[in-house]
Amino acid sequence: MSVTFPEGFLAAGIAAGIKKSAAADLALVLNEGPLDVAAAVFTSNRVQAAPVQWSRQAVADGRARAVILNSGGANACTGPEGFADTHRTAEHVGALLEISAQDVLVCSTGLIGERLPMDAVLGGAMSARDALDPGADAGADASRAIMTTDTVPKTVEVTTPSGARIGGMAKGAGMLAPQLATMLVVLTTDAVVTADVADSALREATRTTFDRVDSDACMSTNDTVILLASGASGIEVGAAELAESLREASAALARMLVADAEGASHDVHVVVTGATSEHAALAVAREIARSNLVKAAVFGNDPNWGRIVSAAGCVPEEVAPFDPDAMSVHVNGVQVCREGGAHEDRSLVDMTPRETLVEVDLGAGEADADIWTNDLTHDYVEENSAYSS
Amino acid sequence: MSVTFPEGFLAAGIAAGIKKSAAADLALVLNEGPLDVAAAVFTSNRVQAAPVQWSRQAVADGRARAVILNSGGANACTGPEGFADTHRTAEHVGALLEISAQDVLVCSTGLIGERLPMDAVLGGAMSARDALDPGADAGADASRAIMTTDTVPKTVEVTTPSGARIGGMAKGAGMLAPQLATMLVVLTTDAVVTADVADSALREATRTTFDRVDSDACMSTNDTVILLASGASGIEVGAAELAESLREASAALARMLVADAEGASHDVHVVVTGATSEHAALAVAREIARSNLVKAAVFGNDPNWGRIVSAAGCVPEEVAPFDPDAMSVHVNGVQVCREGGAHEDRSLVDMTPRETLVEVDLGAGEADADIWTNDLTHDYVEENSAYSS
Questions:
Q1: Which B residues in the span 136-195 are in contact with A, Cβ-Cβ below 8 Å?
Q2: Burial class (CB in 10 A: 0-12, 13-18, 19+), B148
Q3: What is the pLDDT of residues B252-306, one digit of tens each?
Q4: Which chain B residues touch A287 with a CB distance below 8 Å?
Q5: Tell me, what's the ipTM?
Q6: Quick check: is B182 catalytic?
Q7: CB A175, CB B293: distance < 8 Å
Q8: For site (Cleavage), what residue positions does UniProt give (chains A, B) (predicted)?
Q9: Fewer CB in a 10 Å sphere around the end CB: N or C, chain A?
């Protein structure tokens, strides 16, 4: 059902002709209210695509009614003309829905540096408006229209303890898939919440889920996570409850993104414990998850603790204090490294399951953090080296 | 000629039986004097192999007479027993050469986590001592005995403006080659210099050469660069002259390491200009050089400026201030990106030469820095995923 699971939302996903193939490439999500609460988190990349620049200012007041999302082009690095295209899109959708352009958020995903085919975008917006529907199929259509290199649509439905509903759709897999596979997420809820609560809950949910996918700590130019609240359930939801349910929905979507990373043969969960702080644990987890040598070893079904330990050792002391001689490493439950040296024989580790668990205990404190990434495979190289503009 | 090019040095390279193959695996370099000046720079990785721990304290007084280097095992993550092995090696070589163990530096390269076969190491040390020779062949033998995944030995000879000689040998390619391909470098000179001058000159030379190879800013557990000065030429060399000639020798060796990176099909030179500081330029260069998407694009002969710009955009504002809309990118001399957007057609870029020049102008200042790396290829994945302990 996706974004139409909660009450008060309509969705559509159609083929507007933006993509050269005939595939669906334009999605529209409308919040019918009574509330028009909105929150969004955007990429930390300083190169911000036109839609990100637009949406950032449009959602700053905590209010929005609609999101228009296109695949087939990122509209990034397209200068003032590209921004004008996004502005025009928001104005057009606003007019079609009889709402302010400032209440229309815009997301784009695809190739960098090329202008969007605006005839297709604007014409498609009208078709999408005409196709808006509150049903499950419409939600599914929208989730497919935002796909680029995804092989499956990613959707989720969660009900909060108080009975409010949360729906969501996502695309992309961090930086792993080709063309920077922008991560786009739209979460909807019929809970009654204020803009402030929605904003803080979204940020907290994103922090430990979407922000923990992949290893580069380097987002694309277009990454966007949006939350829309209609209040249509009439159920008031507190900040903690909303944050927890959003986290649950986000964690499920984030896990789906990792599982669909193109070219990957393993989903690698790096869990660092025994750190002096969460920040320290995260720095070590990212360094391990970012290591090509670690990820290539996983691809080769090799529980190479030496490379894991060496990657951890590259984190500066001031960022993550720990004694290398106190480090312990488990791979898929087998303690291959203890007190900084060899322990159980690596032949005891079964690396064949897709999910690989790498646990590193720094032995320096009580904090922990985790990162999800994928292995470095031939398919990854193949897909990311084929000519792409 | 390598390390025997300057006066006052003997070298040897033999097969001690450390490597399972019959290949040469033990090198010895002896400084006959009259000076016994020494300086060294070690890995910044906090996981330090036993030989690094030993050599760091042995060279702290600015003096050393010999270096013993083995391939076939890194002696890293081997605990107190591993350190005892290194200590024993230094004592043994010291006894053989009739010098103090504290004047013997030790380097090792190979697999992490395994103890060295000490019978072979100690027995081999005697054979190496017996093979010591001042000639060109001995220098060449030593340069071969330190090779692991290198396909060719790397040596250099430089004469300073005042006529003093510098010789050198190197192995490894940063983090690119399998098994963490430790970088080991031994530089020798017959210049008359003090320990302080040698130390500062070596650090300055290393900073803009060896430290600029590869992209991970993540060194192996064993990286070591050593400088020995015999003073045998009788030629006093000032700090600036030594630093410049050392830089020249180091740059040549560093370039050879990049060119021999296993599995690579392109040597990528990332040059960032127009930065507010060298630190800022370096941060941007490293982020670009570290990007798998950039390196995969190079492998595919694709001058993908969008990925380059996106990588630069991941550097925090406080580290490297610049306006993304002012960025310019040239690939092999063609300006594919100007003012943050598309410019010359990418089809104009000839990516077929092995050397790829990526120039990024941030338009924010006058500082610059460069990094050398390689492309991400199928061979890299293959070599780094094959089972290795």
A1: 175, 180
A2: buried
A3: 999 998 888 877 899 999 999 999 999 999 999 999 998 888 998 999 999 999 9
A4: 218
A5: 0.88
A6: yes
A7: yes
A8: 181-182
A9: C
